[in-house]
Every structure is written in structure tokens, then in C-alpha cells.
Amino acid sequence: MAFTLAKGVTTTVVTLSAATTKYGTGATGTVAGSSGGTVSVTVGGTFTLPASLVPGSYAVVASYSGSDLDEPSTSTVTYTVTKAASKATVSVPAKGTSGKSVTVTVKVAGVAQGVAPTGKVTIKLGAKTVAKVTVPASGKITKKVKLAGAGAKKVTVTYSGDGKYGASSAAKSVKVVKAKKK
Predict the structure, then answer these.
(1) Mean pLDDT over residues 68-82, rounded?
(2) What would the pLDDT profile of 124-156 be if each residue is shown by its tens digit?
(3) Quick check: is 7 in a domain?
(4) Which residues pair with 154 in a beta bridge?
(5) pLDDT tens, 10-49?
(6) What does the alpha-carbon distance between residue 116 and residue 120 come to, in Å, rounded to a whole number?
(7) Residue ranges of the Bacterial Ig-like domain (predicted)?
(8) Structural domain contains residue 1
(9) What are the beta bridge partners of residue 108?
(10) Contact criterion met (CB below 8 Å) for 23 and 55
(11) How far apart are CA 94 and CA 99, in angstroms?
């Protein structure tokens, strides 16, 4: 009489603290499963997905290599990193003279750890685009804009976003007065 000894069935389970996070946040996870064998973290162990992962989808795989007594097993979950929020702000003088320039100051900031937004900012006076500027490392842009006409004019800045940050915009009004005749 011959006996065949079958290996035991194993399970490996990987879980994440969040299936989706914003860039700059990261996540933690745990691996649970059969004892013995090799797992990249110990059975029942935890791991951290880095906050520096760029936006996209990632397969997080936990594998148990098996042993003389147990079959191998694998668990896969999808982890998604989305773009972090950006914040564009604009400041302009409350009042300006038609035909003269005013200074428009734009700031673009992100929330991720020490990673400044990159990309472009469009500055509009009313419906007219008056400048397209690359965001510097400081996130601060200063631009002279010539005023025309009279009345309230809206200055709108739009940050286009980049691979890590989403788009944002801001607006302020400037009251344009006609130049005094001499």
C-alpha cells in the first residue's frame, strides 16, 4: 500500500490602510498567512508604501514561497496614488490706472513633503491671456500687467497641474480708472 502525502493549502493576505491616497501621503499594509516560508515581511508583519510614489496604480503582491509541507500562495491588491491638491493664489492692487501696469503676484503651493509643483500658470485679464509662465521652484511668480479700459477687471490665474499635482485657480478684481488728463 502506497501513501501520498499532500501538502497543506496556504493563504496569504495583503491588506492596505487605504486603497487610494493622494501623492505625498503613502500607506501602510499588513501581510498575514501561513507560518514558515519566506515573505518579504514577517507573517503578520507590516510595511509602508512610500509617500514618494508618483500618481498611478501599483500591484502590491505578498507571496509565501511555501515549504516542504505547504503549497505557496500569493495575494495581490491594487494601490492607487492620485494627484495631490495644489493651491494657486493671486494678489493685485485694488485699484489701477488705465494704460499703466500693475504687479500681479502668483503663488502656487503643494501639500506634499518638500516637492514643489512644476508646470505652467496662465494669467488672464478679463478674457484675454496676458502671460503664460513656468512655475519656478519657489512657486512665486511676479508679472507686470498693463491695464486697459475702465471698471472692474478680473485677474484670473490658472495653474495647469503636473504629474504630481492637480490644477487650481484663483481670481481677484482690480478697479481700473481712466488716467487723469493733464
Answers:
(1) 83
(2) 999 999 999 999 999 999 999 999 889 999 999
(3) no
(4) 173
(5) 667 777 888 888 888 878 777 766 544 333 454 456 777 7
(6) 13
(7) 91-176
(8) no
(9) 88
(10) yes
(11) 16
